[in-house]
Amino acid sequence: MSVSDSAAFMHGLILFGHGARDPRWAEPFERLATLTRAGNAPVTLAYLELMTPSLGEAVTEQVSAGCTRITIVPVFFGRGAHLRRDLPALLDACRAAHPTIEIRLATAVGEEESVLQAIAAFCLRARDT
């Protein structure tokens, strides 16, 4: 493994979703994780509730794998109560448990303009078929 390869493994990515009782609900998230793994960086799914791993477990897993920086991407359509109330408390706990690790938070996926454009294009294609 080259130096640049090992550096790529130091920045982990966690895709954070809500969770559901039906395991089939996670299928698109698993496909998303597979697509984001193309760069060989550690990618982990984590869930707020009803599914595992939790966010804390996912952060610990990535730290154990050698990540010194972790970006958490909320795979939510918008910033509702879970992202405004629950996620900050979870982030605080993760940062307290791993004070030497840089844990960053991205914008909710559904609030990103390019994602909204892709969804709008899909909706228009659906209308026209």
From TrEMBL:
Gene3D superfamilies: 3.40.50.1400
Coiled coil: none
Pfam families cross-referenced by the UniProt entry: CbiX
InterPro entries the record matches: CbiX-like, Sirohydro_Cobaltochel/CbiX
GO MF annotation: an example: metal ion binding
Keywords: Lyase, Metal-binding
Listed name of the protein: Sirohydrochlorin cobaltochelatase
Species of provenance: Chitinasiproducens palmae
